[in-house]
Design goal:
The protein has 252 residues and is mainly α. The chain has one domain. It has ten helices and no strands. Helix 4 crosses helix 5. The chain starts with a helix and ends with a helix. The mean pLDDT is 84. GO terms for molecular function: manganese ion transmembrane transporter activity. It is found in: Endomembrane system. It is a multi-pass membrane protein. One of its GO terms (biological process) is intracellular manganese ion homeostasis. Its main location: membrane.
Length: 252
């Protein structure tokens, strides 16, 4: 096993593999958006189902409330993510314009910033001066280096439209799963809820496993942790619905 892992690592770090990976763009940026949308979609929908079941609502009411929340909350979340990424990109563009202006007005000061940045990384002497000269000879490289090194900004993969659409699609796809049993005619209410519970638990677990691909966490632990968090949200919704039914006589 250790030998196979080493061989896989060596293959990933072959010069050609490294070149392909670095030039491959930011396709992986969509995965966090999908995970975010999927988790929130499943929590939102199953919370509605749990609350409806706890309050004694009929399957039809649970289905209507679930789909209404699925569409409304999914759209709201997609718009929120779109605006957040758009604001982030506008901030990066603003800082980029400032850096271009600084290079025009005080190029020696900006060159010294590059020198200080790479001095802190351990470069010195002739090598440091060669690095500074190489970077500052390319204006775009100069500015992008300042964005990353001085301001700590991400300059690639910021697509508001893609983030919004991926979030919305994941929200709908995963969030619809707990509603599937309520769309099946002839099932008893308890059976519908238990089936919905099972599907929601499976979604939480799978999403948690997917998170491990992004954040490099242990797969099983990540799945269980997300399952527990989703279960806690559903339990709170069920308790709220049950208390509402007991206190206010809300039922259908």
């Amino acid at each position: 096993m250790a030998r196979h892992k080493r061989q896989a690592l060596e293959a990933e770090h072959h010069p050609e593999a490294i070149r392909r990976r670095l030039n491959g763009g930011s396709g992986g940026q969509s995965l966090p958006d999908a995970i975010l949308g999927g988790i929130d979609g499943c929590v939102t929908t199953f919370a509605v189902v749990s609350g409806a079941f706890g309050a004694g609502f009929s399957a039809t009411v649970a289905l209507v409330l679930g789909f209404a929340n699925l569409l409304a909350d999914g759209f709201s979340m997609a718009i929120s993510n779109y605006e957040a990424i758009k604001a982030q990109r506008e901030h990066v563009d603003g800082v980029r314009r400032d850096e271009h202006h600084h290079i025009d007005v005080i190029p020696d000061g900006e060159r010294e910033e590059i020198r200080q940045i790479f001095l802190a990384k351990g470069f010195s002497g002739a090598i440091l001066e060669r690095v500074v000269e190489t970077i500052c000879s390319d204006r775009e490289l100069w500015v992008e280096t300042m964005l990353r090194e001085e301001h700590g900004l991400q300059t690639e993969g910021l697509s508001p439209l893609r983030s919004g659409l991926v979030t919305f699609a994941a929200f709908l796809a995963v969030g619809a799963m707990p509603l599937v049993p309520y769309a099946v005619p002839g099932l008893a209410t308890d059976t519908q809820f238990l089936a919905s519970l099972g599907l929601a638990g499976l979604m939480f677990f799978l999403i948690g496993m997917g998170k491990s691909l992004v954040y490099h966490q242990p797969v099983l632990a990540s799945g269980v942790r997300t399952l527990l968090m989703g279960g806690a949200a559903a339990g709170l919704a069920y308790l709220t619905g049950h208390l509402a039914q007991a206190l206010f006589g809300v039922s259908m």
